[in-house]
What does this fold into?
Amino acid sequence: MAREVGLDAAIDMEAAEELLQEHAAAVIPHLELRGIAGDGNCLFRAAACQVPEGEEHHVALRAICAAGAADAWERYAPYLQPCGREQVLEWCRNMAQDRFWGDGLACRVLTDCLKRPMIIWRLMEPEQRPSCFVPALGVVGAPVQPIYLFLDERVRGAEHYWALVRGERPSQHSPWQALQPAAAGDGRRGSFRRRCLPASFFGTANQQASSGPWTRHGLTQGQMEELLLMQDQGVTPEELAAKFFPGQKEKLRLVRRWGSVDKEQIRAKVQAYVAAKAGAQTSGRAMAAAHRLHRSQCHAFQAERPPAASSWQEELGRRFSVAGRVEAGAPPEQRSSQMPLAQQCGRRSAKRTCSLHWRAHAAAAVSCPCSITCDPDPAHLEACASAAQKAAQEEHTGKLQAYLTPDASYWEAFRDFVCEGALGWDDFFMLLPKEDATRLAPLDLKVDYITRRGGQACVTAKQKKSLVRAVWKPVDVTEQLPTPASLRAFDFLMEHNDTYRTYVLRHRELLRANANSGNAWRYVPTAQLLLQMPGIEVAARPWLYVKASLGDTDVSDRLKALGILKASSNPSAKTHWLRKVLSRNVDFVKDYPLQALLHDVTMARTITAVVAVAEKQKISRDEAAADMPQFEQYWHHQAQKLEDVCRQAGKFPNLFFTIAPAEWRFPLHAGMFSKEDQEDLSQCQAWLTMHMHNCIAAVLDAVLWKNKAQAAELGIAEIEHYTYRFEFQGRGTIHVHAVAWVKYNPGVCVEELSGRSGARGQTSPLVRLLEEVFDCGAVDVQCGQSEHNLLRYVAGYVAKASDSLRFQKGDEGRGAPAETSRWRQVCRLLCKRSPLEQELAMYFAGLPMVETSFTGDRMYPPIPGSTAVNKYRHAYLAYQERLVAAHEEHCQVQEVAEDGRVLRLRNFVEWCRLFRLHQYVKTGENSWSYVVRERNARGRGTGKKCAIAMTWPFELLDIYCGAYAAAFFSSPRSRVVPSCR
It folds into this structure.
C-alpha cells in the first residue's frame, strides 16, 4: 500500500477530494490509533505526531497555524460569521493560546500551512465518508503523505482528536472499532468495546493523560500494559525498544530494567487488571473464575451501570435524594470541569490537574472508570463468604472491596415496597414524607452548634460546640408511625436490615426493663455511644441506611464476621462515609448531626488507638500522634522542618503570600453543584471545601510553583523550595498561606513585587496574577524580608498547635481503672475540639493541611551516653558504623566531588537527609545488623530534598550541647563520648 498520494492528476478540488477518498478507503486497514493527551492541544499534538519534528512540535505548530491565518485572512474570513479581518484576527489570538481547542478552521489552516492533505474520520458516524482537506494551492510535484486524524465526538462540547499512524500489519477491523458503542441487547448497557487496545488506554475528551511511572517516558498506561504483556510472551528487549521507542537507543536499558524482578509487583497488578477486563467482557464469570478473581470484583466488572453522562447538565439530573425531590437545575454560572472527575458509578474524585482555561468548556462531562473496579453491590457485602471465598480473600492483595458508593437503585426495592408497586419517587415522597421517615428511628441525635458568618458574607458555616448525644425515644417505633406506608417501611427495614433490627430490639428491651423508671435510661452514655455501639448511624437514619452494608462505623466488624475481609484488613469508616459524600446522593452531605456523629466516633477511636499504641510501645502519646494534624506535636514538627530547610538553603525564605478567595465568587464544579446550590452554599460546605482545596492547590502548581515561564515573567529566576498551609477563616472558608525560597532575576526590585489587594497605587504583578486567577480581592504578598516572612508563617504553626489536641501528663492512674482513665483522656480531648464544617470535610477526606516541595521526617537527636534503645538510636548507630568504615567499603558518609575527591564527611543530620534506616535485626547480645536505603529514590518524593525535624532538649544545657555535637559533628562516637579511666 502506497504511503503517499499524488494529486497532480486532479483537475479541480472535487477531483482531488475523490482521490483522497480512494486513498482513505485503501489505507484505513493499515492504520492504528495513537493515544493523545486531552489537554486542549489534541489537534496540534495529533498533527505534530505526523511531522518529522514529532509531538513536542505542537506548540510551534499552533503558532504557525495562527500566523498563517493572520497573513492570509481574506482566504479564511468566509469561514467565520460575521466575516471580516477583525474576526479572523480574533480567532488567531485565541488559537495562539496554549490549550485553546482547535476547530474545523484550524484543520483547514494546518492543511494549507503544511501543504499536506488531511483526512479525518469520525466516531459517531463510522459509515460516513471521512472529511478530506486539500491544500488551497493544491499539491504540486512529488506525492505526499496525508495527515490522518480521528475525531471522537462522544462528549458534546469536548471533542477529542486522535492520531492515526501506520501499523505493523493490516487489520481486519477499523482502528476505532474498540471505541464503538456496544450493540443493543449484548448485556453490557452503556459499555464500550475495547478489544483492540486495553481499556485504560482510552480517555475521555478532556481527560488528562494517565499519570504513572511510565508517563515520564512518553508511554500511556495502555502501552505500558501491552509492553509488559509482550515481555511475558518472550519478546526480546530489543524488539520492544524498537516498537515502543523507535529511534531512541538509550531506552533499551530502560526496557531491560523493566523486565527485572523489581517490577514483579507492577507486572502482577497489570496482568490481573487486564485479565479481569478480558474475563468480564468475553465470558463473564467463567473466564473470571479461571483467573481466580474475587466474586465481588467479578460482579463489579459485569455490573450494569448507566452510560457516562454526555454533559454536566445530564450529570446533575442523576443526583437523587431519599428525603425529598431534587431538582436537576442548571449548572452554576461560574464553573469548572477540570478538577474532580465524575466516575461512571457516580463517585467523584479530585484530580490534581489544571488548565489555565479551567473555566472554559464547562458544559462537557468528564467520565472515567474507577481505579481497578467500581465498588461492589450491597448484596455481595451482606452474604456470608464460603470457605473457598475466605481462602481466596486471604491471598487477595488488590483493592479493598469493603465500601459502597450509594446509587439510586439501592433504594428502589425499599421504594417499591412502601408504594406497593413500581411507582416513581414523587409517589414515594408523598406516601413517606421526611417527617414520617424520621419516626422510623428508635433514637434521636443531638449536637450543639453555632452558625458562623464572617462580616457581611452571604455564606455561613456551623461550628460544633459539644459532643454528639443520643436519646432513645420514649415509645416503641411502631407506636409512633402514623400511616400504613410508614408501617410498610418499618417492616421492610426489619426484614432486610440486620443492624436496624438489632437496635430496634435493643430499644424494646430497654423499654421493658425501664417501664416504671424515669427518663434517665433514655440518655445513652457518651463512652458507650462512641466506642461500643457500631452501626449506630443505621438506627439514627434508617431511611438513608436502608441496607446494613451501607453502615459506616461497623464496616470492619460486620465484614470480618461474614468472612468477606481477612482479619488483617482495616477498612476505614471515614473512607466509607466519604464515598457517600462524593456520590450522587445529596442527603448525606446536608445532614449535619450525622456528620458530627461520624466525626466523634472516628475521632474517639483514633485517640483510643493512639493511647493504646503509646502504652504498648512505651512512648509518649504525643509521639504516637505526631503524624496527625489534629494534634499539637504535628505542628511543632512542621516548624522544625522549616528550620532544617533554612539550614540547607543557607537563608531564610524571601517570599510570603496569602490568598483568601471568596467562596461565593469561586468557580464551582459543574457536575456537583447546581445553580440552586450556588445560591445556598451554606448547605454544601463539604463539597465546597474539597473542591476549593483541590482547585487552589492545582492552580498554584499550574501558574506558579511548576510554571517556570510564568515565574520568570514575575521576576523569579528559580523557586528552590516552597510550602503552603491551609487555614480557616472566621466562617471556616479555607485560605492559603505560602512561603518560598526563591532566586530573583538580576535587577528585579523585590519591593515592587510586594503588595496587598486594595492598597493605593498597587502595581505588584504577583498580586495582580493571584487576584485574576482566583477572582479574589484578598491577596497579600511580601518579598525580601526573610526573617519576617519565616516568623509570620511559623506563627501560624504556633496558633495551630495551641488550637490542636494535646495530651496532658498524669491523666492515668488517678484512682480509676485503666480503661476508665483512657476514656477520660479521650473525652477531654474531644470536648476541647470545636471544628467548623470545613474542618470536618477535610478530616473525612484526609486532605493535607500542609503541602511542600520537599519531603520530611522526624528524628530525635542522639544523646551521648544514653542507654535508650529505639529506632532513632539505631539510626545513629548505623551512621556510626558507616562513619568508622568511611575509608573502607562504605561511602554514604563521604561528600565526593565530581573528580572523585573526598571533600569531607557528612554529619548525622546530613546523612539522615540522604539515607534512612530501613531495617535493623539483632544478631547478638549487644550487636545489630542494619539495612540502610537511599531516601527519596522512588515514589512521589523521587528526587526531592528531605527536611529533618529535630526536637532539641533546650531545657538541659549539658545534654543539649552533647546532642548538638553528636548531630552536627562528623566524629566517631568515641570522640564525642571519650571513655573515662
